[in-house]
Design a protein that fits this description.
single chain; about 40% helix; five-stranded parallel β-sheet; about 120 residues; globular
């Protein structure tokens, strides 16, 4: 099994789903994970980008979700292989794209189930 050391998060629909999700990047970084934001949004609230090791908005890497290349390039910005990363997104097509890139995909439907699944994957 690959050592999971990275977390790639979508913004709208995931990090906007309540305080526990908004604080997820900080919790993950405190646990020693490398954390990236990968979103089709063109901006995030002031100061929010500081919670991440890498921020990719829109098609900044030359590939957009759900293209597996978008996830590969974002993992590379973290200094990791896609297989070292968990991707959390609310759209099934994006989770499939992440999985096709070699990442572990988690579909966000609600904070409790997402945080429970991440707790299992990262042993929190």
């Amino acid at each position: 099994m690959t050592d999971l050391r990275g977390l790639i998060l979508d913004y709208g629909g995931v990090l906007t789903d309540g305080p526990a999700m908004a604080d997820l990047p900080l919790r993950a970084r405190e646990a020693g994970l490398r954390v990236a934001l990968l979103s089709d949004a063109h901006s995030v609230p002031d100061g929010y980008a500081d919670r991440f090791d890498a921020v990719v908005l829109g098609g900044a890497t030359g590939a957009r979700k759900p293209d597996p290349e978008a996830f590969r390039r974002t993992a590379e910005l973290l200094g990791l292989a896609p297989g070292d990363c968990v991707v959390v997104d609310d759209l099934p097509v994006n989770v499939r794209g992440a999985s096709a890139a070699g990442a572990v995909g988690v579909r966000h439907t609600d904070p409790d189930s997402t945080l429970r699944e991440l707790g299992i994957l990262f042993d929190w």
